[in-house]
What we know:
Oligomer: single chain
Radius of gyration: 17 Å
Shape: elongated
Structural class: mainly alpha
Strand content: under 5%
Helix content: 55-70%
Number of helices: 7
Amino acid sequence: MAYTPPKIGAIFRAARKEHNLTQEQAAERIGISYREVMDLENDKRYPKYETLYAWVKALSIPPHQIFDGKTDYAEAERFYEQQMNCSENERKIIIETARALMQSLKETTGK
C-alpha cells in the first residue's frame, strides 16, 4: 500500500486563524510566499520539510496533528505545551521515560 500524505491544509488554516493572522502575515512569519500559503491551505501542494517545520514552529501546531490529521487530542496538546517549556535535557528524559513506559506496556499487554 502506497503512502498518502495527510491533507494538512485545514490544519494550517486553523492554526493561522487561531493566531489571528492573514495569509500574508502567516507567509511573512513562516518565510514563504503568500501564494505558497494559499496553495498549502488548499492542499494544492505538500510542503517541503523546512516549510512544514516552519509552520509547526511559528504557529505552535502540535506535531501529532500534522502526522495523523486528528485535532481532538486536548490532553496530548496540553502535555506537548507543558513539555515545550522544559529544557532540552528534560525533554530527552521525558521522551526516554515515555518510550520505556510504552515498551513495558507493550510487553505486558502483548500489543
